[in-house]
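Comment thread on ticket #2218

A.B. wrote:
> Attaching the input chain for the structure job we discussed in standup.
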Amino acid sequence: MRTRNRLLTVAGLAAATLATAGLNSSAFAATTLSSGHVDVLDADWDGSALSLHAHDEENDTEYDPADLTLAVPAAAKVTNPGYTFLGSGSQVWLLPDTEAEATAAGVLFPGVSTEHLTTGVFANNNVTFTLLGATRNGAVTEDFSVYAGSGSRWFDSDTATGSFKSRTFAVATHNHANWAFEEAGTYRLTFRVSGTVGGVAKTATGTYTVVVSS
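C.D. wrote:
> Ran it. Output below, let me know if you need it in another format.
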């Protein structure tokens, strides 16, 4: 049984206080996750609407993206594997596509999940995730990508291309790839999940905050 986390923690109280004072509270989120198995893109269907959450597999808890910060520590830095889309820097911050690597590094093991969508509901039994936008420290960034171990891109924030913005997944599946960040900073990643039910398009959108430490 999955639970939906809506607790207002110390960070949440701080955000509420700042909001009351009319100050920017966008840097605060009720929960921060920095390690363990987390399906960052987790699609759900309640019978009438799609929704997009992050699912903490370790504690079987769902979070609205707005209530969550994903932390990427300096320990995530690895030698740049040399794929051209990862830029010319000598290192990148990597959340790996295998749980053993993530556990050894003490970093998040990020996933893309449609396992809570049943067959026979969505047209062709699939849904599509789309990267709508990515910023780093408030500015549009090209420094984020998701790719399979062979260097096959799933998503890329590179504004020079319209490719690698959408990927379709079969329902009732669970997928993992490498999540890469080329620079430290605070990223805001906006994704949409979409599918068709009975000829009607259904969508849901969420914006995720990822803090990459130097």
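A.B. wrote:
> Thanks. Noting for the ticket: Residues 1-26 have pLDDT under 50 and may be disordered.
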